[in-house]
Structure formats: structure tokens, C-alpha cells
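Worked problem 6 (solution included).
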Amino acid sequence: MSRPNIIFIMSDDHASRAISAYGAGINNTPNLDRLANEGVRHDATYVTNSICTPSRAAILTGTHNHVNGVTTLSTHIDNRLPNVAKALKAGGYTTAIFGKWHLGEGPAHEPTGFDEWAVVPGQGDYWDPGFHFPDGYRRVPGYATDIITDMSVDFIERHKDEPFFLMCHHKAPHRNWQYHPRYRDIHEPGSIPLPPTFEDTYENRAAAAAAAKMRIKSDMLYEDLGLVQPEGGAEIAGELMVEGWPARKIPELKDGETISVICAETGKTFTFDDPKAFAEFKYQRYMSRYLRTVQAIDDGVGRMLDKLDELGLAENTIVIYTSDQGFFLGEHGWFDKRFMYEESYQMPFLCRYPAEIAAGRTSSDIACNVDFAPTFLDWAGVAKPSYMQGTSMRAMLRGETPEDWDQLAYHRYWMHNDEIHEAWAHYGVRDERYKLIYWYNKALGQDGARENDAPPEWELFDCDKDPMELFNVANDPAYGEIFKTMLEKLDAKQADIGDVPEHDSTEVLASLSAKSG
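Solution. The predicted structure is:
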């Protein structure tokens, strides 16, 4: 059989819970489910930095962010660096990327290694989006998800007779969740169950959890929920999200207050005097818009799968679906990502390759987004370059996980105390049961990071006993040996990948010994 085609479909901020194959029961994604049913659903894929730009750099290069230099949203890739598309192109593949790039613009940062590309600037627009092409910039009328799918289907048709590598990168379902009108009648607000941790009080956790500004009840914008933003200052319309932007946050309702908001689509007015009911109203509108936005992606995946069937390419084409990270869907009362907590940390990963992967498999072996590029190269028969830090997932995905597979994931979020969400810097490791996080809480001169006076803290979670991560056991004497073991794993991983620690393990262990003594 000839070398396989590789189609890598990635959305933005698509939580695993919002894919019905993962079993949460909150929506129906039949085309994404086809990938799971006809291939493998991987349940333990983790992002090395839970934010858009750094994750994309890790996927493209197969390296951690301290190596590729893309640590925050404000850092851009140096497109002179090697990447997986360049390696595949040199190996005889026709390469393309369509959709969201988010790694910088202009000659120093635009895509390289691709025979064809069309990418949106920054986050891009949902409607009539602009695209940077090799020959310039122009707007394309229509809905972004449909347009990116159109470009991808067209590429498949034109290159059906040669091995190709296609990166189809959807903007959706990134904030502010603008869905196509054809999905207006699904996921009616009020029909979506609240997660059990929606009213989390952030006790028994590091201070970073309570400090983060990504609470549904207090940090969402009018445009996020399709509501009309009133004219006026903070007393009338709520506080500005950030200096220099006109968008304001919908106020959090307090006891004894009343608020009225207007639906931008229908003009209907909603009035509340119950803080709990208003917070749940926000949740329902958020989830309704989010899930409706997801549905266009599912339809687009279906079109691509149908095209492969039509062209007789399905058997020898690898199709992967993932997201650039996870996303909070009301868990802990949050939206957004950034944290190493599970909902933000876990990436969905579905893969169909009929020639090699048995249908209907699931896998829970730990993998990371730095492993994607080596996996692509393995399938293509191209040697993995020495600079790549990831490991091919190929054997694991077909159910032949090597005995020495490293069941450990590493995460580092660099953008300390960012201007919008005030998420604090941290790093850590997760194995098959435990998760250790160190909140080092320093900006370290990183672009987009800001200093504050938050002291460092440790968190340790027993993910078997506490899957919702509500109880930090870092200071529990019963977990003292586990803490030491996880610290050893963290130290070994940082040494292996060359990341510089902000903790001193000798001091940490001495402090732990003093507490237990």
C-alpha cells in the first residue's frame, strides 16, 4: 500500500465533553463519533501549555515551548525553525494548512513548509473572515467553519492521486461562539445540565483558583452570550474587560439587586432578582451558543469523510480530530482554559486509519501534543529529526503500547497573571493516578505576563479518589511518599526536556520532612 494521506483536523477550545463519543451526553456529534467508532478514541491526550498559540507551536514543531520559544499568546513562531510540514514536504508529501494559524503574521511568522496555505489573522472572524494567502490578504464571504471545510475538501479533491498532509484548523468554537443560523433551534437554553462543581467555592485549592477571572457568573461579556451591551459606564453596563477595549462584563448580580438584559437576536428582555438564577441563565446561554457552534465543525468533518469515501481514499487516509487544548464548560464555575486542571488539560483525540487501527478502540495511555509531529512522520516513513522531543503514538494507537512507554504528561503555563483572566504561572506532571502542580507565580519576563505578589504553592491531587480535583492533598501526611515520588518524576521530566525549574527540591523535601516530623 502507498504511503497514507494524513488529515489533521483541529478546532479551538473544543472540550472532550462536547463530543458525544466521550459520553457526557450534552450534545450529539455523529460525524466525530464516526472517527471514534471506526478508529480509536484516546482518553489521555494532554496539552503541554493550555493556551492557543503555544499549543499550536508544540504541535507543529514537536517541541516544548521553552525550546520553540512560543510561550505565551504574545510570542510568535520563528518560521525559519524546522517543523513537521517541512519534514513531510521534503519527504515527498504535498502539504497544506487552512484556517487558524495564530503563530504570528508577516514574513517572519507566516506559515512555512506548506505548498498551500490560507490562514486567518489572529483569532479570525466567524463571518466573512479575512484570510492571509501567499499572494495577499482578502475576505471570503460566508461562515468561517464552512469556508475552512470548503478549502480542505477542495485540496483533497485536487491532490487525491498523491500523498498529502492537510492541517484543517477551525476557528470554532472559540469565544464568542457565533453559531450559524441553521443551528438556531438546537440546544435551547435551559436544556443543558449544570456540572456538579458549578458553584465551586475554591476551598482546599491553591489561591490561583479563586483569583482567576474566568467565572461564568462574573466574567462573561455581553457579546459572549448574545446580549445587548447597554450604553454607559460601569454602574450601568458593568466593568470593562480590559483597558482599551469597549467590551464590558455582564455584572454579577448581588442579593437585593435586579437586572434586565436583552437578547440581541430576538429583542426579548429577561429580568432577574435572584443571583443564582442569573448565574445559571448565563451558563445556559453560554453552553447553548458553544454547542451550536460545535455543530458546524461536526458537519464539516462529515463532509470531509464523505469526500474520502467518494474518492476511494478512506482506507489509506489517516484522519485525526483534536483541539488545541481542553476547555471549561461550567466546571468549577469557569469558562476558558489555561490551568492544568483536567477539563482544561485534556485534549480530545480521535483517530481513524482503517489500514492499521481496529475500529472501536479506546486507549488511556498518556500522550501529549508534542507527540503528534513524530507520529505523523512515523506514519509517513520519514525519520524523526533529533530536535523533536515527542514520541510517536503510532504503536499505542493501534493497541501495541511499548512496555517502556512514559506514562507521564508535563504542563507549563507561562503567561502569569495575564491581563484578561489573571491566570497564574505553574508547571506540573500527571501520571496515571496523581497530578502534582507547582504554582511558581512569576512572570519571568515573558511577553504578556505580569508580576504580582502571590507566593508559590504546591497542589497534589489523587485523580482516582478525587476526579473533580476538589481536595489538594499536598500537605496531607498520608500522601507524603506520593508527593516525593511525583516530585522526583517532575524533576526527571524537567531535566529530560531541558526546562528550568523554579523550585528547589532539596528545600521542598526538607520542608515536607519538617511538617511530617
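Discussion: The mean pLDDT is 97.
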